Amino acid sequence: MVDYSKWDKLEVSSSGEEEEEGRGARPVVHRLDPAANEELRVGNLTVRSKRAGQGEEKPSTSEPSESACEISASAKGEDQLRALSRNGARCGSYLWSQDRTTCTLGVIVPRGSRASEVGVELSGFDYLGGTKRATCLSVVHRPSGTRVGGDLQCPCRAEDDDLLANWELKDLAGSTEKERVVLVELRKVSVADNVVVWWKRLFKGEDEPEVDINSIEDRVQGGGQSFAEVWNEAEKMFKEKLRKKS
Fold it and tell me: What is each CA distance from 187 to 52, 133, 140, 161, in whole angstroms?
């Protein structure tokens, strides 16, 4: 049986009352006046009174504003577009970029596009010193009728792994229409040691802007760099060596 007799000695006092000496062993309840904003300190513990309805501040759970989201998405989109046209150009429905060893074509396609709807093809094959090359590229998105392609400014490698179509389909960051982009990577053909060929255009013709290769971001000034003319000259020299050996 529970003994409740100890509660008979419970004393209730207001915060202004003082405990009488010698009653320290008896339990005492202190009532804090909410209107007085009182504090009660017990050792290292501090208890504060609160008015009705007063509570701790809660962390905000509100979502970012629509305008803030739009600005963030726009910034991400611009960053991706800049990356997709680095050392290259933006050309309407497609972009292209390049570094020392590769060129990458980015074809913009509608939202919801699937990889099974995309066709990527290299053609116009020839050989140079045992290296198989392609001179034409075609990218097609069948449902929308989007077609990008033509004769490449310079040949690209077309070995078996290249013919498997080194490409991917991903979302285009920041696109208000939720568009996607087909990225096709082309490996540049090296015609001589320490020669880097920077392409002025991805495709031959005047339909896309020409890149000023003298101001390319990734180009290191000095030896080992090349204009498009260097490509042609090196290729002619290589073919001449092969002709003399035959």
Answer: 72, 10, 20, 11
CB atoms within 10 A of CB 226: 18
Q: What is the mean pLDDT of residues 183-206?
A: 88
**Could you tell me how far CA 57 lies from the centroid of its own chain?**
36
**Strand stretches in 71-226, DSSP E:** 89-91, 94-98, 102-109, 118-128, 131-141, 146-157, 167-171, 180-187
pLDDT score recorded for residue 223: 46
Q: Which residue has the tokens 């208890």?
A: 47
In 10 A of CB 99, how many CB atoms? Answer: 17
Task: Report all structural domains of the chain as residue ranges with CATH numbers, in order of start.
Answer: 92-245 (2.60.40.790)
> What per-residue confidence (pLDDT) applies to 214?
87
**Cβ partners under 8 Å of residue 144, min gap 6:** 109, 110, 113
Q: Which two tokens stand for residue 63?
A: 């979502």
User: For the whole model, what pTM was predicted?
Assistant: 0.61
Question: Which of 162, 160, 147 minimizes the C-alpha distance to 203?
Answer: 147
Q: Is residue 117 predicted with pLDDT exceeding 80?
A: yes
